[in-house]
């Protein structure tokens, strides 16, 4: 199946239409500020978008309407209330720097989010029934543990370089990560609680070259000089291939059965 795209001649990168093979073309219209005002589908629902200072009204071709109410300016503008076509309403609250604090569903049930004042990382999520999950981080903003409403905990440990070296699951099972290069963040092996070992090899550019599972089954990967994956070779001799044009855009994929999907760009 082929999907084609059409772009505006005047405004680079602005998509004005797309279509799938044997399907009608979907077209888009924009206002002078580059905002979509219409999505036109000759064989299905079309939509219009009307922008006001503090809300956006979306109307489909059956005259069903949704309204997105916004607060804030520029990069801090957020959708704080959504009026759905069925009459229901959902709401969100954000703090002064745009971080999500609460979400209230159509039934009036509220979930609360507690971000760290300095980092913005979520430290606690409280569901409508009052049950809470807690999250803890180190001074590098890496997650060190998380406790769910049921009290079960996962834990993570890192080495002095900030690399994950151990993860403990709620049931106590431990997965360890091994590194053979002090300058790489990429593990060369993982070991699970049963002692099963999986190994990986990487190129000097961070590309996965091979993966060996705990049974010794090896999958190998090829890349071109630009780092894009060109082939996956599996143990049983089956391979998948990918081809790119001079711009690095994917132009063909061939599966293990030899079936090829091609992509075209204008």
Automatic annotation (TrEMBL):
InterPro entries according to UniProt: RHS_repeat, T6SS_VgrG/RHS, YD
Superkingdom of the source species: Bacteria
Protein name: RhsA
Species for this entry: Escherichia coli
């Amino acid at each position: 199946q082929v999907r084609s795209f059409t772009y505006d001649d005047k405004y680079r990168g602005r998509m004005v239409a797309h279509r799938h093979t044997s399907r009608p073309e979907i077209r888009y219209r924009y206002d002078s500020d580059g905002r979509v005002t219409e999505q036109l589908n000759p064989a299905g629902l079309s939509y219009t978008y009307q922008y006001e200072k503090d809300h956006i009204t979306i109307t489909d071709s059956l005259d069903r309407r949704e309204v997105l109410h916004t607060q804030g300016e520029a990069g801090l503008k957020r959708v704080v209330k959504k009026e759905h076509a069925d009459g229901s309403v959902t709401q969100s609250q954000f703090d002064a720097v745009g971080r999500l604090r609460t979400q209230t569903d159509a039934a009036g049930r509220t979930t609360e989010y507690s971000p760290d004042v300095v980092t913005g990382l979520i430290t606690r999520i409280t569901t409508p029934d009052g049950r809470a999950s807690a999250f803890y981080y180190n001074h590098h903003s890496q997650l060190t543990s998380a406790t769910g409403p049921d009290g079960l905990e996962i834990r993570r440990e890192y080495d002095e370089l900030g690399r994950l070296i151990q993860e403990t699951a709620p049931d106590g099972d431990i997965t360890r990560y091994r590194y053979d290069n002090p300058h790489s963040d990429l593990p060369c092996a993982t070991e699970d609680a049963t002692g099963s070992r999986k190994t990986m090899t990487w190129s000097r550019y961070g590309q996965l070259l091979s993966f060996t599972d705990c049974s010794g089954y090896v999958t190998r990967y090829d890349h071109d000089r630009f780092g894009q994956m060109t082939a996956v070779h599996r143990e049983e001799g089956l391979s998948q291939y990918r081809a790119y044009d001079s711009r690095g855009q994917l132009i063909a994929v061939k599966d293990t059965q030899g079936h090829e999907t091609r992509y075209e760009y204008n």
